[in-house]
Amino acid sequence: MLIGKENPYLIFVLNGGSTSTKIAVYENESPVFSASISHPENEIQAFAEISDQYEYRLHAVLQELAGSGYRLEDMDCIACRGGNTGPVPGGIFAITQESVDVVMSGAYGSHPNAVVNKLAYDLGQQYGKPVITCDPPVTDEFCSPARFSGIPQITRQSSFHALNQKATARKVAAWLGGTYEQMNMIVAHMGGGISVGAHKKGKVIDCNNALDGDGPFSPERAGALPNAALIRLCFSGAYSLGQMLKLMTGGGGLMAHLGTKDAQAIEKKAADGDEKCREVYTAMAYQVVKEIGAMAAALGGEVEAIAITGSLAWSPFLMDYIREHVSFIAPIHVVAGENEMEALAAGALRYLNGSEELKQYEKGCGLP
To answer: What is the DSSP string of 38-68?
Structure first.
């Protein structure tokens, strides 16, 4: 780390999605260059495995960066959104050969960002730069009761929008004149998936599993379902395992009810008098406020703030509904947008200036 550096730190940030790779250069927490590199579906489908995309994405990243006027050799740090390792506590982690091997193996789930983790690590090795990630999606800080389900064979897993939730909580805590580690807060990330977390003095002690589509239904995820009805549907013979999983994540929620996951279009139709759109959209908001209420109970009613983030936080309808139903719990603060690139840059800066310790990935590190 470079504590006490006079000039701003230069941080190169990467975030891989299924059909895009986002890159940015930050001077401390200020973006000075950003680009979203599109990967057309027909090009991505030409690769049999995610690992096969390595050269394709690397070339695209280097080509885009070359046109920016910034050089990797001038960077102080490379930051990349975390991959699917085993569960880890929140914090800043070095991306290492070991963590890259685990992510690329797909042992804990396959995601296109795995190959971006590998290219970030390789670029760090090539240019002699530290490579970090911050609050990966497998962040697990659950309290013991939160891990139990009613069936011993099934344990509740922590998988949520940890990066944006924690960054939002830190931001709101600063607005209120405190620190994240001092406060109790509920954070709802509302995007393609919805996660609502109970943040207790710097740790997320409970949250719905947004990856699997638990909790509130969302634009494309089914949310929690009546158990017996779900089991009967699974054994009805009408759906394969793959089709059922698609219903849970990708084909559920607004998509299943209304044939689209475009929340803006649905909200406009509802405002224009489409009763079905209004009912379904309201039901999604209703499930979010129920989950916020549940997390307030998990925190024993000691809640200093409720923070709403994600792309759906731009929605006046949803924000008005949430304020009306849960403002009695705590003041509501809206931080709209995904904010992942900004959150990664902020994490890198905390590492560089020495305000947060760098952790090393080990299987099961730091977990009870």
So the answer is: E--HHHHTT-SSGGGGHHHHHHHHHHHHHTT
Beta-carbon neighbour count of residue 238 at 10 Å?
9
Q: For residues 306 and 326, is the Cβ–Cβ distance under 8 A? A: yes
Q: At 30, is the secondary structure helix, strand, or coil?
A: strand
**Crossing angle of the two packed helices 340-352 and 162-175, in degrees rounded to 10:** 70
pLDDT, one tens digit per residue, over 57-104 is 999 999 999 999 999 999 999 999 998 888 899 999 999 999 999 988
Confidence label for 50 from pLDDT (cuts 50, 70 and 90): confident
- Domains of the chain are 10-138+341-360 (3.30.420.40), 144-337 (3.30.420.40)
pTM for the structure as a whole: 0.89
> Which residues touch 104 (CB under 8 Å, ≥6 apart)?
50, 51, 114, 115, 117, 118
CA-to-CA separations, 305 to 43, 220, 243, in angstroms, rounded: 45, 28, 39
The answer to whether the beta carbons of residues 159 and 210 sit under 8 Å apart is yes
Containing 24, the helix (H) or strand (E) segment is: strand 20-27
Model confidence over 163-218: pLDDT tens digits? 999 999 999 999 999 999 999 999 999 998 999 999 999 999 999 998 787 999 99
In angstroms, rounded to a whole number, what is the distance separating the alpha carbons of residues 215 and 225? 9
> Could you give the angle at the alpha carbon of 177 between the alpha carbons of 171 and 182, nearest 5°?
80
